[in-house]
Amino acid sequence: MEHTSLLERILRGIALTLVVIFFMFPIVWIFMMSFQTNETILRIPPQLVFEPTLANYTALITGKLTTVSGTLDIAFMRNLWNSVFLSVTSVAVALLLGVPAAYAFARHKFRGSEDIAFTLLSFRFAPALLVLLPLTLYFQKLGLANTYFGLIWVYQLICLPLILWIVRGYFEDIPADIEYAYRIGGHSWFATFRKIALPLAGPGIAAAGLLAFIFAWNNFVFALVLASADKQPVTVGALAFITSSGIQYGQISAAIVLSITPTLALALYAQRYLVEGLSLGAVKG
Amino acid sequence: MTAATVQRVRPSGFRISKRVLPYLLSLPALLVCIGILIPFLTSVVYSFQRYRLSQPWARQFNWGDNYISFFTDPKFWNTLQVSLLYAGITVVLELLLGLAIAMLLQKRSTLNNFISIMLLMPLMTAPALAALMWKLMTNPGFGVLSYLASLIGLQDFRWASSPSTALLTVVLVDIWVYTPFIMILLLAGLRSLPTQPFEAAALDGVPRSFVFFRITLPMLTPYILTATLFRLLDSIQQFDIIYAMTQGGPGDTLTVFQVEAYLNFFQSTNVGRSAALMIILWAITYFLSNIFIKNWLRLRERARGQA
Question: With contacts defined as CB-CB under 8 Å, which chain A residues touch B134?
């Protein structure tokens, strides 16, 4: 069907190579930097060949950095743990709240259902600071400032709309007749929900959960505003890293590598669902 | 559960439970909604107040003063200009680049699929961390990009730390992170197009540019619109990349809406002005998202129809 000349194929090849280099180079470069000592990093011109060292990673994991001016304690593992804890718990809570609601929105067109769904959707597009700035003042009064509980609550802003809208689509795809048939057999709505709807929407729920995890993990502004050092996830923690003096560039790189690896790995695993998730169900992958 | 047992004993109970059930199921989500609407309304109130955290005693309603003062405030016009410029440049460039890459990868092959998955990696990197990566690469002392710039004659190219190139640098990071988003949406769109029109055009020997402008683009328009509006809404609110890269600097070169509001709140502790800025940004995004949601719903209906 398509007649492509040799010249065109070469040009396409070159274009694709440039694209791949542009998008992959930063990740590869930071990865390489994370295995270098400060000496090799500071060498000019930059070296492509070097003796790899794990020193940056061991320093991060043990939490002790040796600098010119002595040892420095860093809490990067704490940041990493915070990221894991905040993301996992937020997604779990969002699933608990969002899946039943998604089911209600998909199956029952009740008064105000679309309004609630759209209000939730609009959170996805509202400026985060609009809500966050008053919340900081409220949280201080309520004693929720710098608590996991407060952070997880605010993280619902990211996770809940995502889960609600994606899972709703999956529930809508299940023919209602299957559920009616089961209901007629004398089963309660809850049994129908648990035995029929949930398993059939299972893959969608899993995908929405993974995506919500990625977005929660990658979030920056919520924790920047609401958390202090001991509750901060990696995104905020790494920023504090780069501004504090004495920390070596290789160690910053290693911290970045450790921080982005989980989401990259999950994304590769869930890539089949990414298109649908990123467009909140508007485009099927 | 109780509703279900009642139903079996007394069929009339079923009607009630059926009416209450959806509300019951969505109640938690509804509560979260309300929990968010309260701070939103608080923001509206703040925006009509003279409210500085440093002078809590002087807090009072000044009604529209925060907004009126914007008209004569060069800092506000700078914020508006930078935000629109940033959003405009990033969205246009990402759209062109994303469309080009999607068309390069359109044909299903192992290599193309592999590349398209690889290109997702920047998108899955936290934008704040992506900014840090680029910060390391553009470091004047050892950054590999600074070195490359010096190779092509740009000695002492300052990237994000010079007012003349700061915007360029953050736009570059934005393009790096978000072009894959547009690419992946348009790729899905391209691959879902019916093949007949293209086969017919090929049979008739229609020129490729004609096929592109008269068949591909029109058919792809809903996808392009969705991707554009998604990006536009995010881009005009960009905070992570700019804050992590330059904190709005140098000077006020990059004080886009959210960064300016953040600095107003935490540095000058001017809650009133900060809230007013956010309300204006919200009004812009509300206007845009209304256009967006209509179009997006249509596309969503269609996607569901195909399933």
Answer: 26
Nearest CB to B176; choose among A23, A164, A236: A23
Chain A residues in contact with B137 by the CB 8 A cut-off are 26, 29-30
Other beta carbons within 10 angstroms of residue B187's beta carbon come to: 27
Task: Report the interhelical angle of B74-104 vs B166-192 (nearest 10°).
Answer: 40
Q: What is the pLDDT along chain A (285 residues), one digit of tens a residue?
A: 455 788 888 999 999 999 999 999 999 999 988 888 877 887 777 777 778 888 888 888 887 776 666 666 778 888 899 999 999 999 999 999 889 888 888 887 777 777 777 777 777 778 889 888 888 888 888 888 888 998 998 898 888 888 888 888 888 888 888 888 888 888 887 888 888 888 888 888 988 899 899 999 999 999 898 888 888 898 888 888 776 666 778 888 898 999 999 988 888 887 777 777 777 777 765
B130-148 per-residue burial string, b: 16 or more CB within 10 A, e: under 16: bbbbbbbbbbeebbbbbbe
Domain boundary assignment for chain A: 6-73, 76-278
Is the CB of A260 less than 8 angstroms away from the CB of B243? no
| Model ipTM value | 0.88
The residue of chain A with its CA nearest to that of B290 is A122
Secondary element (H or E) of residue A73: strand A70-73
- Does A125 sit within 8 Å of B289, measured CB to CB? yes
Residue A197 CA to residue B178 CA, distance in Å, equals 35
Flag if A256 and B202 touch (Cβ within 8 Å).
no
Per-residue pLDDT tens for B99-134? 999 999 988 888 988 898 889 899 999 999 999 999
- Give the H or E element holding residue B264: helix B257-266
Residue B141: inside a domain: yes
Instruction: Quote the minimal CA–CA distance from B33 to chain A in Å.
Output: 7
CATH of the domain at B274: 1.10.3720.10
CATH topology of domain A76-278: MetI-like fold (1.10.3720)
Q: Tell me which residue in A125, A137, A274 faces B285 most closely, judged by beta carbons.
A: A125
HSE toward the beta carbon, residue B189, CA cutoff 13 A = 27
B17 neighbourhood in chain A, CB within 8 Å? 189
Kindly state the tokens that stand for B109.
């092959």
Q: Closest CB to A97: pick one of B32, B117, B126.
A: B32
Q: What's the domain count of chain B?
A: 1
For residue B141, the chain A residue with the least C-alpha distance is: A42
Top residue of A133, A243, A256 to mutate, by most chain B CBs within 10 Å, is A133
